[in-house]
Design goal:
The protein is an all-alpha fold and 212 residues long. It has one domain. The protein is built from eight helices and no strands. Helix 5 runs antiparallel to helix 6. The C terminus is likely disordered.
Length: 212
């Protein structure tokens, strides 16, 4: 595809973007902004994004992404509960930003590999059975990294942003190919926010507690 053709596809995609996608995109950007600031509004705003994208992902045969957004919805409620917990005596928030230990890194990688394998196998079957537009390896990667990032975000782990970066990089071309151009642009912005969030959470996390 030439640059003019790419540009024309971008313009056409923006013109064809529906109201639901616009709302979902802005809610997604807002959610990441709040998470960067360690603001609990990340979760209610994020729920608007995830619920709308469940619908859009199913409509576009992005079955892995649909599962991700269902998972996001569940984990948003879980994270909302964790972030809301306060000490009964001084009313201070109990959960703080921390770095992952070596053991936790191993757990993260195993978590990612488990979900990647399961999603890839499921989408490979779906592609043969009823969803020829599915892209198993790309969709599984974007989904599994997002699963891992959301889990770590709920626990306020600095490394969650690294997984989000991987998700955003994979999702830009994935959604563009599927025709969700405005969503693809969203992931470019989310990548920038993820880098900023990683830098900010590294400062807030203090001295790394990585085991040697």
């Amino acid at each position: 595809m030439t640059l003019p053709e790419l540009y024309q596809q971008f313009i056409t995609g923006i013109q064809q973007t529906g109201v639901i996608e616009f709302i979902a995109v802005f809610a997604g950007i807002g959610s990441v902004w709040f998470s960067r600031k360690e603001n609990i509004l990340v979760y209610p705003v994020g729920l608007v994004n995830t619920l709308f994208y469940i619908y859009l992902s199913i409509k576009g045969n992005l079955l892995g992404e649909a599962s991700v957004n269902l998972y996001y919805t569940i984990m948003s409620i879980y994270g909302w509960i964790l972030w809301s917990k306060k000490d009964k005596q001084n009313q201070e928030v109990l959960l703080h930003i921390t770095f992952s230990t070596r053991k936790e890194w191993i757990q993260q990688i195993l978590f990612f590999l488990l979900f990647y394998g399961a999603i890839f196998a499921s989408l490979s079957w779906a592609k043969q059975a009823f969803a020829p537009e599915a892209i198993p390896w790309a969709d599984a990667f974007a989904s599994a990294t997002a699963y891992t990032g959301m889990w770590l975000m709920a626990k306020k782990k600095v490394e969650s942003w690294l997984w989000w970066m991987a998700t955003n990089i994979a999702s830009v071309p994935l959604y563009f190919i599927k025709g969700y151009v405005f969503t693809s642009v969203q992931f470019v912005l989310l990548l920038v926010l993820a880098v900023a969030g990683w830098a900010e959470w590294r400062k807030r996390g203090g001295i790394s507690n990585v085991e040697v």
